Amino acid sequence: MGYNSRHMKIEKARHARLFLAALVPALLAVAGPALAGDTFLKGGVILHPRDVGFEGRWRAAFGADYPVNFSETLFAGFEVQTSIYRQDVTASGPTATVVPINGFANIKYKSGSLGARPFVGGGLGLVSTLNFVSNETDWANDIGYHFLGGVEIGHLSLELQVQGAFESGADTEFSAYVGFVW
Predict the structure, then answer these.
(1) What is the pLDDT of residues 69-79, one digit of tens each?
(2) For the chain, how many structural domains are there in total?
């Protein structure tokens, strides 16, 4: 049984997916009961830019928001976003496994405790991408921003986001998310 580089690439990609699949529930379990705040899990799609296929434009995100005033309208929190997809490096060359991982510290304003709670917010954080090609790993990262707005209806959250990196020439992303808040 000899060394098979293609098999090793598949195994590395599988291990990365398993790691992320285990990491998300573990972080959610810790985030929720830490303080009396809102924990959320959501999925979404990048509406613009569309420089990769649909498989590279979806995101999964989780995080928590904690009230910082007595009327529970101002919240501080965090959000982590990720996905995993495959992309050809060149037409006849190797395929890369791409793992965007973004993390933001947020401030949100939510309206009073009505049935539907509109919210707006913004945050700063790290915008990064891990690229796994053959036996090499590349990590590109920069400080980034995101602005968000939406509405929470009971435990359902509908949200639009604008985010990007401060790096010169970086694309600004427009995304839509649907998720659950508890």
Answers:
(1) 988 899 999 99
(2) 1
